[in-house]
């Protein structure tokens, strides 16, 4: 967790002069867009993604698939339907080079795709990508028949020597450091000769909604998937080999990226409407309805979207976030402004996210006068009056949005490298000032 010396720009986080009252159109989900791209690339016919997220992580995914030979055409649909991407699957070819940036979805979901290519595919990325766990994918692919050159650390950089096909079959992995290991193997599973049976052997498994999203989207393109929830064995997922359909999919708004805007209503006692909030979704951000209600707000899901209202009071919370880890920075920011202490649990794996999120949140909130301590698997947050100062982001988009939440009620917060929000929400500064009516 080091401050990036290349990023000295400081963004004065806007201070809210009163209760916010805004409608915020949140761009598409990163997790849905990148799964949809992979599934469309592996399909046996062209497909469409409407309102895809255009951000660093999704453009890296699209760029990588193009490098492997997949056609991705971009366009704008008729009035009101927004942008679309048309994905035209093709034979997957190496040699190719993939830049994963610091995108967990790209570094985990694409090595199994590369194993199906007909030549070597080299994976590289940001310095932080070398530290993020990948052993679950590398070891599993070797068991399933792939040849991979790496430096033995179970991490990037590496080369997958695709041979045009992969045997597949049963494999055991420990996915306690990232659910994306499971998702990665399942997404390409229909294209393995024997399909895949993934058995998770670790003691914990984070981010279950994201695994459900993978299963749901696989079924949506015609794959047969057996899961623990559909009567299978606990911790075992089975994907049958078979062709995938091309789909016409409209991407839901990113509910985790809706978080700072909902938080704005909560901490200012205001009101925010997020249009197109899905009535049914696998996105973990949907849990915010419950979490932010417990922290003092109230919400109503209507045909227009989610209307979230702050009461003026912000309460602490004791909550297990293991299923929804990516919400932790935003919840920690709200908790630092609450009227009682909070305990956030079940998120030890966040130490290996974009940055060590537990250390980064502790340090940055405490430097504004807060009282946060790290626990073995989370944070203990005792609210104290905060003051302005620099909020470092460590190349982590969710640190930047967490700092912005605090800046709404604490004057003089300056966010270092707010541009890091481009990972999943390039328009964040404009959406944020727009919400405040600036
Ligand atoms: O599959 C996905 O789209 C994601 C899974 C989660 O990863 P971990 O299980 O590694 O936390 C989540 O934190 C990440 O933002 C997106
Ligand atoms: C953990 C995250 O991303 P990634 O997909 O890179 O793991 C995140 O977006 O909070």
Entry keywords:
438 residues, alpha/beta, UDP-n-acetylglucosamine1-carboxyvinyl-transferase, Chain, 2 domains, four-stranded mixed sheet, 23 strands, 22% strand, binds shikimate-3-phosphate, binds phosphoenolpyruvate, cytoplasm, transferase
Describe the model.
InterPro entries: Enolpyruvate_Tfrase_dom, Enolpyruvate_Tfrase_sf, EPSP_synthase, EPSP_synthase_CS, RNA3'P_cycl/enolpyr_Trfase_a/b. There is one protein chain. The protein is α/β, with parallel strands linked by helices and 438 residues long. The protein folds into two domains: 10-26 and 252-435, Enolpyruvate transferase domain (UDP-n-acetylglucosamine1-carboxyvinyl-transferase, Chain, Alpha-beta prism), CATH 3.65.10.10; 30-249, Enolpyruvate transferase domain (UDP-n-acetylglucosamine1-carboxyvinyl-transferase, Chain, Alpha-beta prism), CATH 3.65.10.10. The chain is built from twelve helices and 23 strands. It has a four-stranded mixed beta sheet with strand order 2-15-17-16. Strands 4-5-3-14 form a four-stranded mixed beta sheet, covered by helices on one side. Helix 7 (259-268) runs parallel beside helix 11 (397-409), helix 9 (328-335) runs parallel beside helix 10 (357-367) and helix 9 (328-335) runs parallel beside helix 11 (397-409). The model has no long low-confidence stretch (mean pLDDT 96). Bound molecules: shikimate-3-phosphate and phosphoenolpyruvate. Phosphoenolpyruvate binds at residues 103-105, 326, 353-354, 398, 424.
């Amino acid at each position: 967790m080091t401050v990036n010396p290349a990023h000295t720009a400081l963004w004065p986080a806007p201070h809210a002069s009163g209760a916010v009252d805004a409608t915020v159109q949140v761009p598409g989900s990163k997790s849905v867009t990148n799964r949809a791209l992979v599934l469309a690339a592996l399909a046996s016919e062209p497909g469409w993604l409407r309102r895809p997220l255009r951000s660093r992580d999704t453009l890296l995914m699209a760029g990588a698939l193009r490098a492997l030979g997949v056609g991705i055409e971009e366009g704008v649909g008729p009035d009101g339907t927004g942008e679309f991407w048309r994905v035209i699957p093709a034979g997957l070819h190496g040699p190719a080079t993939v830049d994963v940036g610091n995108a967990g979805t790209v570094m985990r979901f694409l090595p199994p795709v590369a194993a199906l290519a007909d030549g070597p595919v080299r994976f590289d990325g940001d310095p932080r990508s070398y530290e993020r766990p990948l052993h679950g994918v590398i070891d599993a692919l070797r068991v399933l028949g792939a040849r991979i050159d790496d430096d033995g650390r179970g991490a990037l950089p590496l080369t997958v020597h695709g041979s045009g096909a992969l045997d597949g079959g049963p494999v055991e992995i420990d996915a306690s450091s990232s659910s994306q290991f499971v998702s990665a193997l399942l997404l390409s599973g229909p294209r393995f000769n024997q399909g895949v049976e993934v058995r998770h052997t670790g003691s914990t498994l984070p981010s279950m909604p994201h695994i459900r999203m993978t299963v749901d989207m696989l079924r949506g393109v015609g794959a047969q998937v057996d899961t623990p929830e559909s009567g299978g064995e606990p911790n075992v997922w089975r994907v049958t080999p078979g062709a995938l359909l091309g789909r016409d999919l409209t991407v839901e708004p990113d509910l985790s990226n809706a978080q700072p805007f909902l938080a704005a209503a909560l901490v200012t006692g205001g009101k925010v409407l997020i249009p197109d909030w899905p009535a049914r979704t696998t996105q973990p951000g949907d849990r915010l309805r419950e979490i932010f209600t417990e922290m003092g707000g109230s919400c109503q899901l209507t045909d227009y979207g989610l209307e979230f209202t702050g009461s003026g009071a912000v309460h602490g919370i004791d909550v297990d976030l293991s299923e929804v880890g990516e919400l932790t920075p935003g919840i920690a920011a709200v908790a630092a402004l609450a009227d009682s202490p909070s305990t956030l649990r079940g998120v030890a794996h966040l130490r290996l996210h974009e940055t060590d999120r537990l250390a980064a949140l502790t340090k940055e909130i405490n430097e504004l006068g807060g009282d946060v301590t790290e626990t073995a698997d989370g944070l203990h947050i005792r609210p104290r009056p905060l003051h302005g100062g620099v909020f470092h982001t460590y190349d982590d988009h969710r640190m930047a949005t967490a700092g912005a939440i605090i800046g709404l009620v604490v004057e003089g917060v300056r966010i270092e490298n707010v541009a890091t929000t481009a990972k999943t929400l390039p328009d964040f500064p404009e959406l944020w000032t727009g919400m405040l009516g600036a």
